Amino acid sequence: MGFLSSSTSSHPHVGGKPAAVPRRARPGVLYMAVEKKAFRQDPLPTIKDFNRRISYHGKRKEFDAALKVKGMIEAAEALDTGIRRNVYTFNAWLDACVRCGRTELTSEAMKEMARLGVKPNIVSFNTILKGYATGQKADLENALALLNEMRRLDVEPDVLSYNTVLNACAEALEMTTAKKLVVEMLKNNVKPDDFTITTLAKGWMTLKNVEELDKLLLLKIKMESGSRTLKCRRPTAYYTLADGYIRSGRPRKAVALIKSLLPHHREDTDGEVFSMLHEIDVAVDVNTFNVLLKALKESAASSLSAQKVLMEMERYDVAPDNITYITLVDLLCTNGDMELGEATIASLAHSGFPTTAAMYNALIKGYARMSPPNMEKVFEIYDAMKEAQDGYSPPDHVTSACVVDALARVGDVGTALKVLQEAEASEDFSARPRKETFNALIKAYRTAVLKVRTIEEDEFDGDEGADEFDREHLAHYFNAARRILIRMRGFHDERVTPDVITYNTAIDICAELGDVPNAEKLYREMIEDKIRPDVKTFNTLIKGCNRARTGLMEAFKWTKEMSEMNVKPDQYTYAGLLSASAESKDVPRALEYFQETLQAKRDEMMRFREEEEESFLQLSVHPSAYVSLMKAFSNLGVNGSKMIFKLRDELQGICTTSSVGICILNLLLVCVKVAKRRTYLLPVCSSGL
Question: Which residue among 49, 381, 570, 580 is least crowded, i.e. fewest CB within 10 A of its CB?
């Protein structure tokens, strides 16, 4: 390990003339000089060299080495060698602490600066702020307090200061605070930059807030309009916002945004905001087109539209990269064009373009999505990747996740376990399984539970005990899934530790079994692991309450928890509450939640209508909501029968005949198993369905 060059200034030695310091000190001089205190024997490096060494170790996350150099400086100070710590020394040390995850030491460093009379500068504060972007509210509060401390010390925050705190807000999903900070930035004449936009977009896309993403787009356009320095603006903020639209469920809006940046497609985009983009010259790059392909995939666009994107890239002289072809193959496979997907990969390999495991993973996912999944092709590709046949890329950690997910779809737990064990035994570290593979295995246990439940419930054939299937027989599936989760929690690598999908899937197993206590226990563990629950978490917990028939009050407990966690309910939340109301024979509440379900669905449809996505406008409330309301009215006897048939007629108008038939069959079970009023059977059957 070489030593950094020292300055040309001389170092005063005791009892002699100042010796000239060489341009590069000999290796080991620094350590020997301080440890043996032999300052008279060798010329010492300057404080600048010490600072560089701390920075060097900090960037390599070698905390102990950085701490050792810091100790050497303090020793040199104590021996009165003329070496004194300055603001750059402390900045290097602060950066090392932050990079090495030792942010608790930054406050001590600031106190030490005050004791020595070293005034911190803007770099000092920005470095400490960087360590507070952890997603924890306590750290966000520390970051906001530090901003106030900066002003108290007459150090005005710059755009980097604000961006760093905004990043802490985005990580903690405290976007209301972020909005206030943006207002403060503008008030203090601190101009937002691209990083400001992308950081805010990261937070709003996590919350799926399309309205706020629209405001960010307007802010970005105003920034571009007021700038005269660049003729061709960078596209980073635009394709990040487009990605935000995709993640928020608005892929077609993302398509419109990207096309507004392309002169040849501007006539294809409508809307006042997108027309404003027509006057801005943006230098599109490969990432722009990659996001466009992703948006087309998520909006169920045709394979032909994806091929046109490649032609556009050629027009703009933008070379496709690996992500371009991976997304292209994924789109083709999503559309079921498996032969075209395989032909694309073969063509790339033939032309010498390096194919990757991600391309073959897309093929595996495509065959897994078939109905039924084509497991023969899945394992044909998987085996070829393992044996590196015909230029196939070796499998990576995503490969095992895709294969296990395919097996999860058919409930083949045994084979899924074997694939996981193969991946764990791989000599290639990149092929070792991560959380996606473990999540897929838990999903396999869930599918197995559903298969057994369906078989066992069918065996009752409408008897009184149809819901009293053998839960003990299925408990071993949950226990196995629970062991997987515990194992994941034991890892210290965040690539393997559980996430919200892990817990949601495990909770869903409990929900299917009607095991409310274990479902609640998993939820508490989730909070303990600092994993933020989403709307699916609470919908699954409410479903578990309905399975166990614990009553409406138990379901209400989770709606209250949703409110405290700032999670907005959706139509499935209200449908779950509707089902709970029907079980509790609470007709007024059932009607209330039915209306809430309809309203939530209308809001969703209006959201798509703004985007003119006509293919989504025919979506209606799931028929199970009608069945639940029918079930509630069945408790009113003859008085409820009129409403039941009114709901049936309404259902006929918005669903396919097969869907209505399934609902009527469910209603028959309602009449027989729950209401036990067989007098309803004749008018229901005479409906012709």
Answer: 570
